[in-house]
Amino acid sequence: MLHTQTITHQPDWDAALAALPAAHALQSWAWGEFKSRWGWSPTRLLWRADGTPVAAAQILARRIPRTPWHFLYVSKGPALDYANTELAGQVLAQLEEVARQAGALFIKIDPDVTRQWGEPGAQPPDPTGAALLKLLSQRGWRFSPEQIQFKNTVLIDLAGEPDDWLARMKPKWRYNIRYAERQGVQIRAGGEADLPAFYRMYAETAARDGFLIRPEAYYRDVWSLFLRRQQAELLLAEVNGAAVAGLVLFMFGRRGWYLYGASTGQQRQLMPNHLLQFAAMQRAKARGCTAYDMWGAPDVFDESDGMWGVYRFKQGFGGQTVLGLGAFDFAARPALYRLFTQTMPRARALLRRVK
Questions:
Q1: Domain that residue 135 falls in
Q2: Residue 124 sits in the same domain as residue 184
Q3: Domain total in the chain
Q4: Are residues 332 and 256 in the same domain?
Q5: Which of 19, 227, 319, 355 has the least CB density, counted as fewest CB within 10 Å?
Q6: Contact (Cβ atoms closer than 8 angstroms) between residue 137 and residue 330
Q7: 100 and 223 together in one domain
Q8: What pLDDT was estimated at residue 52?
Q9: Are residues 59 and 85 in the same domain?
Q10: What pLDDT is recorded for position 239?
Q11: Burial track 96-124 (b if 16+ CB lie within 10 A, e otherwise)
């Protein structure tokens, strides 16, 4: 029999969550703490069976912009063994009830579960993902029209030693890593004092590549919080003492994530980004991670997708493409949910920006 508990103590939450399958940095206490300063209210539910944690869901609540309604969001969760469909069904049922009791318009989940390994059509559907899709359909969950996080990614296995990883990379990527080393590109760990410069580099990247970013205070908040909790590292690639590229590596449980990356237009011919990624893989391995998630792959796997070039860069490091399930909604107030999804595109567009 499952026992549900609301957790209010950070060490208890993170310890229980980190031990669960599908644990994710966006379910960590620090992520909920950070989001609480930017319009969200977190609640953390832990399920135990015979005293042992078996599932966890950090539920973020927020009002939908320009509407009187609010919704609940379990970002990259809940965390549990999804091969256990009975457990998954029990957790979903309780999340549905939480949404009803809260008077929420809907609850969104974003389970970190594989739908298929490889690009579309490359392999059969993953059995666990297929079973979960069936369960969600049976329980009235629907694929969300608003996908807040990336659905697909590239995942690198960190088994073995760095030479083993290099052997799995494309030849040009191996060459570029060694070339960057020969040309004197240096990788160093940054600290909070480096965050203003990193943000300027991040803003330059956004302007060059055409993606929108938030105010500096937002990123400084999340980066500094995770750095202080030792759940993230800032890595900078430097040429002659000047930073030309950087990334923020998040780590939680047994996985590392390349969540934020930036570069200048300087010294790109020296391939600093290739060496930077290789260094991030090594740092994740040193911190006990068994996989490095490159965080994001296209929805459409051809050159029409805006992520195609970035995807090809990531793919060269020898990882495996993973197609995820994406986010699903359960409408606690079905009539209003239909109104929201069918007739309020501007409000839905705003929802995509509350990531």
A1: 2-147+325-351
A2: no
A3: 2
A4: no
A5: 355
A6: no
A7: no
A8: 97
A9: yes
A10: 98
A11: bebbeebebbbbbbbbbbbbbbebeeeee
Q: 310 and 208, same structural domain?
A: yes
Q: Are residues 137 and 176 in the same domain?
A: no
Amino acid code (one letter) for 148: I
Considering the domain architecture, whether residues 128 and 204 belong to the same structural domain is answered as: no
Handedness of CA 36, 38, 41, 47 (dihedral sign): negative
Instruction: Give pLDDT tens digits for 199-227.
Output: 999 999 999 988 889 999 999 999 999 99
Q: How far apart are CA 156 and CA 104, in angstroms?
A: 38
Among all chains, which residue has been given the structure tokens 């869901």? 57
Give pLDDT tens digits for 248-300.
Answer: 999 999 999 999 999 999 999 999 999 999 999 999 999 999 999 999 999 99
User: Any idea what the CATH number is for the domain that residue 193 is in?
Assistant: 3.40.630.30
**Which residue reads 């940054």 in tokens?**
190
| Sheet with 186-190: strands ordered across | 114-117, 320-324, 152-157, 291-293, 255-263, 242-252, 232-239, 186-190
Q: How many residues does the chain have?
A: 355
